[in-house]
Amino acid sequence: MPSLPPIRPEDEAVAEKLRPAGAFDAPSDAHDPVRAGYLLRLGDDALILGQRLSEWCGHAPSVEVDLSLANLSLDLIGQATLFLAEAGDADRLAFKRDVLDFRNCWLVEQPNGDFARTMVRQLLFSTWQHMLYQRLTASSDAAVAGIAAKGVKEVAYHRELAAEWVVRLGDGTDESRARTVDGLDWCWRFVPELFEVDEELAAAVQAGIAADPRSFEEEYRAAVGAVLADATLPLPKDQRAIVGGRRGHHSEHLGHLLAIMQYLPRTYPDAKW
């Protein structure tokens, strides 16, 4: 008696239908790793900054500002939900990943500091995000283009709000000006990472999914410079660039943020909300 059953004609027919993939190969609709990686970058940037801004809830200088920052936070978390849902299970990606698996830039994970630093951070990021989303509306990926088309309207307001506050603070009292200058000094070293193009991003750009940030770097610096000029603030001197967030190398601040953000889902993993 043979050790294995003979191959029947019907078995051959099933195998023929599976060609060129085997029965245990990855499904044909599995996520493209280049696409998924880019979606994580976009989603993580929005998620982490949204979480940071939520920390102002109940602590902002006025009720109006409190509501404004809460709305910015909700916009960003909504964008993050859409991007992460395209990359996989949005809830698991947000609440079950460890710090080294996040792909956000360093700028968004920085502590809020005082109100001036928060507004400087928002200006630097929202100006970049607005220009990026404008270009992503032409992405070859329909989902990315659709999310960007919706988000660009929201981010235009984020950019405008931040610019107005930076001008008001920079051209305000001696104290507000000093705090704004300190915020610029803190945040400026994280700007170069926004324009870094590594192999993964280069592949996404080549595929038409992503936009090359280097294509609007001059426009970005001119736009930020114009806001600072209106605020009577000097353009910060270039510092040693801090990069690595896209590869999972983060500051200690992100770990503390995630400990708070992920506490409930990790403590009560079976809870239904």
Structure characteristics:
single chain; 273 residues; mainly alpha; Ferritin; 12 helices; globular; disordered N terminus; Phenylacetate-CoA oxygenase subunit PaaC
Give a structural overview.
One of its GO terms (molecular function) is phenylacetyl-CoA 1,2-epoxidase activity. This is Phenylacetate-CoA oxygenase subunit PaaC. Its EC number is 1.14.13.149. It holds the Pfam family PaaA_PaaC. Keywords: Oxidoreductase. By secondary structure, the chain is mainly alpha-helical. The protein has one domain (31-267): Ferritin, core subunit, four-helix bundle (Ferritin, Up-down Bundle), CATH 1.20.1260. The chain is built from twelve helices and no strands. The chain has helices spanning 9-18, 33-54, 63-87, 90-95, 106-109, 115-136, 142-170, 174-187, 199-206, 217-230, 252-261, 263-267. Helix 2 (33-54) packs antiparallel against helix 3, helix 2 (33-54) packs across helix 9 (199-206) and helix 6 runs antiparallel to helix 7 (142-170). The radius of gyration is 23 Å and the shape is globular. The N and C termini lie far apart (58 Å). Residues 1-5 and 18-30 have low confidence and may be disordered.
SSE layout:
Layout: H1 9-18, H2 33-54, H3 63-87, H4 90-95, H5 106-109, H6 115-136, H7 142-170, H8 174-187, H9 199-206, H10 217-230, H11 252-261, H12 263-267
